[in-house]
Amino acid sequence: MSNAETPTGKTNIQPGTYIDEDGWTQKLPISDAECILRCLKNSPTGIENDQVAYLIKSIENGEVVHMNTYDQSGRTSKKIVIEYDVGTYERTKSND
With 0-12 CB in 10 A as exposed, 13-18 as middle and 19+ as buried, what is 92? Predict the structure, then answer.
């Protein structure tokens, strides 16, 4: 769309933006992980800085996954799971 004529006559659309159905320039949506990171990086004073830094590192090096959960009583919920430090566990007879 860059350098293309838009309904409002705008040209030179900035990267990371688009023109909506009403002709307004909008920012492209961000991922959930990016949203969480922005919130953590702008955390209020009084929050433990080491804990925030650990969470930021975990999210940057991990994967954010959406899950739907169901149980036998019919209860459903949605979860956002941050998976990080993924490894392999060696099972031995003494671990069972």
Answer: exposed
pTM of the shown model: 0.55
CB 1 within 8 A of CB 28: no
Per-domain boundaries in the chain: 1-28, 31-83
Is residue 87 classed as helix, strand or coil in its secondary structure? coil
* CA dihedral sign of residues 76, 82, 86, 91: negative
Residue 63 phi, psi (nearest 5): -135, 135
**Tokens, residue 94:** 């003494």
SS3 66: strand
Q: What is the pLDDT of residues 18-75, one digit of tens each?
A: 888 898 889 888 888 888 899 888 888 788 889 889 888 888 888 888 899 999 999 9
| List of residues 6+ apart from 37 with CB closer than 8 A | 56, 59, 60
Q: Name the β-bridge partners of 27.
A: 17
